[in-house]
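User: Please predict the structure of the protein below. I'd like the answer in structure-token form so I can feed it into my own downstream comparison script.

Assistant: Understood. Taking the following sequence of 193 residues as input:
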Amino acid sequence: MSSVEEESDREASEPEKVEEAVSEETSESAEEAKEVGEADEDLTPAAEVDKWKDVAARSQAELDNYRKRMAREKTEAIVYANRNLLEGLFPIIDNFEMGLKAAQDGEGESSMIFQGMSMVFKQIGDFLADQGVEIIPSDGVAFDPNIHEAIKQEPSEEVAEGQILYTMRRGYRLKDRVLRAANVVVSSGPAQG
């Protein structure tokens, strides 16, 4: 056989090899499509487009919700960042108030010690106000378990039942969160018997 004939035979057999390779790839693709299509058997192209549009819309909504949640958490972290520091100051303030009361009772309001302590106490109050801390009102108001902690009940002829007689320890809140509930004594109404 001449070289020209061998080349023509080779060229003739190459398209057959290409066709075999294409048919193998096509059958593999068909099998893969069949496996994927089993989950979405009866989807028309329009239904499949709608399905993927729905998936995209849900993903977009989830991303928006995530962004909003992260922004809200960041804002809360900034607003309430000093919470632990402020909670640590409250016992110190309580002790300072006891010292102020003792200075007032011992030497009177005209003493230099009382006046100096009063100025420092005012500065502490201003600092707390600048930080957004408020004193929870407790004397002479109705007992609220959300912001008050009842230590005990006492009978009272003057104060109605459920009203606070006096405060044992002040309560504080930062913006809308209670940092420390006020410890109070609640009236049980007039003594019976």
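That's the full token string. The mean pLDDT is 80.
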